[in-house]
Amino acid sequence: MISSRDLGDLSLLSQIKISGSFTKAASALGMTQSALSQRVKALEDRLGMKLLSRTTRSLSLTQAALEMVAVLAPAQEKLGEILAFSKTKNSLPSGKIRLTAPPDAANYFLFPFLKSFLPNYPEIQIEVLVDNAFHNLVKDGLDAGIRTAGLIEKDMISLKLSDRLAMFLVASPAYLKAHGVPKAPKDLMLHQCLNLLIGESGRIWLWPLENQATKEKLKFTPKGAFASTQPEMLLQASLDQMGIACLPSHSVLRSIESGKLVQVLKGWEPVLPGYALYYPGKRYKSAAFQALLEGLKAWRHLS
Predict the structure, then answer these.
(1) Which CATH class for the 4-90 domain?
(2) Model confidence over 210-266: pLDDT tens digits?
(3) 202-233 burial, b for 16+ CB within 10 Å, e for fewer?
(4) Are 279 and 155 in contact (CB under 8 A)?
(5) HEC string of 112-131?
């Protein structure tokens, strides 16, 4: 069996053939002509065969040397491909990232981003905890979270992901026909309001109504028979004539355009701060998390 030393020295012959001359081969290998000559001579002695034809005017590979180079070349090329792939693979960020996000942010912002991000980073795994609860990132083993900017604690670093979020009050035409159309915020007291629950506490989210003309603001406490932590369930409930829901405009526009829902109390739309990613400032940021940050910076929805 050929030794690793002999295999390494046979690569010298490949370089001589590629370079076309002994002088160029020595230069490409980063050694003197004398050192190259000595290495080849030692190889000839170990193999017991002549590898170079030497004359006063030229120096070329023997037929035996050419045959060995022909066998060695494909293996060298394949090895180079493997090494190149390995370097590329090892240079890509890797690891698991755990995130938390409310349902709307997860469905309409985070998931569309991840569909384009993850194929470019095959060594990164993303886990998303979807709920309306306020998690302690460090205690719960989470790397980052997404919330509306106004709800993020001041000791967190945040990255703005979207502009301000408009909320629409919507109901089905059939519900409004049966129960009437509210003309002012106080009229909502006479209606079934579909309530959003905040996390496991069971606390009802108050509707932050804002008059877009006068900038008057009021917190309305919605009351009704149905509540859920999932905005998509509230959307379905409004489509099913169960009451009035307060939902992000981007989640109801299609239903409004198709006539399945009607916006009520126009001019009193709540406007929330945009979504932002937040994470502890003093926590170590892995290469995978850095890649996520850079990806979000390039993708975020800002006008």
Answers:
(1) mainly alpha
(2) 998 999 999 999 999 999 988 999 999 999 999 999 999 999 999 999 999 999 999
(3) eebebbbbbeeeeeeeeebebebebbbbbbeb
(4) no
(5) HHHHHHHHHCCCEEEEEEEC
* CA pair distance 254, 244, nearest whole angstrom: 17
Q: How confident is the model at residue 88 (pLDDT cuts 50, 70, 90)?
A: low
Q: Do domains 95-163+275-299 and 165-272 have the same CATH topology?
A: yes
pLDDT of residue 303: 45
HSE, side-chain direction, 13 A CA sphere, residue 186? 0
Q: Which helix (H) or strand (E) holds 199?
A: none
Confidence of residue 83 (pLDDT cuts 50, 70, 90): low
Q: What's the CA gap between 95 and 113, in Å, rounded?
A: 18
Query: Are the C-beta atoms of residues 297 and 158 closer than 8 Å to each other?
Result: no
Kindly report the CATH class assigned to 95-163+275-299. Answer: alpha beta
- Which residue has 């295999």 as its token pair? 7
pTM of structure: 0.63
What is the residue extent of each domain of the chain? 4-90, 95-163+275-299, 165-272
Compute the distance between CA of residue 253 and CA of residue 256 in angstroms, rounded to an integer: 5
Give the gyration radius of the chain's Cα atoms. 34
Determine the Cα–Cα distance for residues 46 and 40; give it in Å rounded to an integer. Answer: 10
User: For the stretch 60-74, what's the b/e string if a residue is b when 16 or more beta carbons lie within 10 angstroms of its beta carbon?
Assistant: ebeeebeebbeeeee
The architecture in CATH of the region 165-272 reads 3-Layer(aba) Sandwich (3.40)
d(CA 36, CA 42): 10
> How many residues in the chain?
303
One-letter identity of residue 258: S
